[in-house]
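User: Here's a protein and a ligand (adenosine-5'-triphosphate). What would the complex look like?
Assistant: Let me lay out the input and then the predicted complex.
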Amino acid sequence: LTQLFRPLDMLGMVYRTIRQGLIDMAAMFKLMDEPQEVADAPGAPALVVRRPAVTFDNVVFGYEPDRTILHGLSLEIPAGSKVAIVGPSGAGKSTIARLLFRFYDPQAGRILIDGQDILGVTQISLRKALGIVPQDSVLFNDTIGYNIAYGRDGAGLAEIEAAARGAALGPLIERLPQGFETEVGERGLKLSGGEKQRVAIARTLVKNPPILLLDEATSALDTRTEQDILATLNAVSQDRTTISIAHRLSTIADADAIFVLDQGRLAESGTHAALLRRDGVYAEMWARQAAEKDELGVAAE
Ligand code: ATP
């Protein structure tokens, strides 16, 4: 990874946004094995986001020519809404996020943000509009302040402090004699999974993107921490369009809409209550997860 990014460092600040996008994505999707080249269209304008609606319009996509993963997928995500994408492993949930970031381009169909086809805008402007709170956050061997400020070039201390508060990192930072100057990472203070997650949330708050992607982030955390983090994420999602990629349904039951993906097709969509009434794929997933929870509960006693 370092090898790949060193030349970009030399090219200066303008590339930081791209680089950050790559690091976020690498963390989330472990994509670095085979990053694909997508190029800006000549003379492409910047994406201008006034109302951060996201539309997938009949998107067809496969990583390889002979294996289609998304079969004409259409999703309508209104500006400011909180939606979740669920479905079995391999259904294509992460692929949707990769396409949104333009790590790949669809073979057919369009992806629009606020009415603008993402193929036609600069990648820098696209990635500025998108924030990610990944599953495994990457921390740099630097200060906690640097790690938070990494969300945006030129972030000042006041912004960093506000972001730390927003991510509920205040109590941790107060405990540290050197505060934001505390070194973290391999050579410094080791942060817990939940604390790392909060640094990622703070980073996102500094970046302040209109569209937020949440990779279900809580698998390695205990229940109490998980609940705390979910509450923080809910607060951070205010006034943004939020797309959660979820494995556990209990965390997304209050979403404005849930899209249920099955083998690259939209099987169902609706609110939690509507999907339960429908008694289809989602209801079955819900019942299965409830049963698993019961079993775990019994096993724990
Ligand atoms: P999970 O819940 O397990 O994370 P998912 O719904 O996010 O799964 P995707 O990661 O989007 O699923 O993958 C959808 C399909 O695309 C899978 O069959 C997967 O094997 C395939 N796939 C993913 N990445 C690549 C890749 N880089 N090259 C080829 N095929 C890929």
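Summary: The mean pLDDT is 83.
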